[in-house]
Amino acid sequence: MNRSCRRFCLTILLLACGSAHAVGDDRSLDAASARSLMTSLIFRHNHDTPFIQRQVSPLFAGVSEQHGILRIEGDGRLVMRILSPRQEMRVIESGTVTMTRRRTDGRQSTLSTRLDPRSEPQLVLLAIEALLLGNLAFLDEHFLLGGTAQPSGWSIELQPRADAGSTLTRIVLLGSDHQLRRLRAEFAGAQRQRWLEMDIVAASEAPS
């Protein structure tokens, strides 16, 4: 049994032994249980993982949808290649995001930004980086952790701490076994609710 499988089995054993409080078939997870579950997640390095990103914002009429490939490289870089509707590259490395896109005149433009956790949209990117690279100390510093476990899957909720602001209401992770299937960030503003959602497409579900 490899190390990741052992960690996952230990997490399930802890939940079954009472580190989570049962409510029917659901078990509510405290911070320690949610942290253990996140530690057990398996993210393959140097592997292309398809994803679908959806976003609702006052800037869009309806839902904006993007399809792309996520790759965790061995040197700790997260590479997100947007394939449609417009090609774009986003690289997150050591708290900096670099976006490369082709302009309407055919030229390529590149912009690098140092991510600031005080900016809530940027805090979401930092949380994604921390989750995929296993930096739970960052998540503990900026979020309160909790969640639920069910026979069909689990959910982990990250609520921003008081000093993170009031627009980002929560980040929800949904998955089954030791695989993350969906990440959803929800914002509440003066105009209307906004959200950003990323579905991790399993290999069997990816288009050929």
Describe what this molecule looks like in 3D.
The protein is of the alpha+beta class and 208 residues long. The chain is built from 4 helices and 13 strands. The protein has one domain: Clam (outer membrane lipoprotein receptor (LolB), chain A).
Number of structurally distinct domains: 1
Rg, rounded, reads 18 Å
* Beta content: over 45%
Q: Spans with pLDDT under 50 lasting ≥5 residues?
A: 1-23, 203-208
Number of strands: 13
- Main pleated sheet: 13 strands, antiparallel
Q: In the CATH hierarchy, what is the class?
A: Mainly Beta
Q: Please tell me what the overall shape is.
A: globular
What is the correct CATH architecture?
Clam
Span of the ends, CA to CA: 31 Å
Biggest sheet: strand arrangement: 1-2-9-10-11-12-13-3-4-5-6-7-8
* CATH fold type: outer membrane lipoprotein receptor (LolB), chain A
**What is the CATH superfamily?**
Lipoprotein localisation LolA/LolB/LppX
H/E element order: HEEHEEEEEEHHEEEEE
Percent helix? 10-25%
Question: What is this structure's SSE topology?
Answer:
Layout: H1 3-19, E1 20-23, E2 26-29, H2 31-40, E3 49-56, E4 63-72, E5 78-84, E6 88-93, E7 96-102, E8 108-114, H3 120-133, H4 136-142, E9 143-150, E10 153-160, E11 168-176, E12 179-188, E13 193-200
Antiparallel strand pairs: 1-2, 2-9, 3-4, 3-13, 4-5, 5-6, 6-7, 7-8, 9-10, 10-11, 11-12, 12-13
Helix pairs in contact: 1-2
